[in-house]
Design goal:
Arc Repressor Mutant, subunit A, two-stranded antiparallel ribbon, three-stranded antiparallel β-sheet, alpha+beta, 2 domains, single chain
Length: 191
């Protein structure tokens, strides 16, 4: 029985791109995807979870710092109809080794692919924008409720939630907690 792997357009594009590189690496990304970092991160994370990509820690021979890269697995290549061969290094179901590395450790479940962890610095927002207004309200000591954010910005609660999600995707550490039966959202000062 043949199993069909369902892929999004972006996942197919990423796997196709990786299949054309010497050792099936996803990076460097194609030019047209470089401005879509959040979407690419989510797609790569999904590919790793499904075993269609793997995370490699490469320890260089010269003792320099280890690097981490995401590589397509043979299952990932087969999902797009690319037959792995001995010459491509994708003959088995394991994560493909990086060429020239003296040690490669496959860590599909323990490590996050590079760039998939939360960004260390939040993307700045335009001064005077709705996002800037939300961040200012979220910086209050006690936090703020969705209702208060909705009233202050003049938008509906579902739009406020969507804007909060957008701020999270841009790297802002937005937290929520129930205080006296009300959900209150906040962000660290200076974000």
């Amino acid at each position: 029985m043949i199993t069909t792997v369902r892929l999004t357009d972006l996942q197919s594009l990423l796997l196709s791109h990786a299949s054309r590189s010497d050792h099936h690496a996803f990076e460097p990304l194609p030019e047209k995807l470089r401005d879509q970092e959040a979407r690419v991160r989510l797609s790569l994370r999904s590919l790793v979870k499904r075993g269609l990509a793997g995370v490699h820690t490469v320890l260089p021979e010269d003792g320099g710092p280890a690097t981490v890269e995401v590589l397509a697995t043979s299952a990932g290549l087969e999902a797009i109809g690319c037959e792995p061969t001995e010459t491509t290094g994708a003959a088995d179901d394991s994560v493909l080794p990086a060429p020239g590395a003296d040690e490669v450790a496959a860590t599909n479940t323990a490590a996050e692919p590079p760039g998939l962890s939360t960004p260390s610095a939040a993307t700045p927002v335009k001064p005077g924008s709705r996002a800037a207004q939300l961040l200012e309200l979220l910086a209050r000591d006690q936090g703020v409720t969705i209702t208060a954010l909705s009233e202050a910005t003049g938008t509906l609660p579902h739009s406020v939630r969507a804007a909060l999600t957008g701020l999270r995707k841009k790297g802002h550490a937005i937290t929520s907690a129930k205080v006296d039966g009300e959900r209150r959202y906040s962000v660290a000062a200076g974000q």
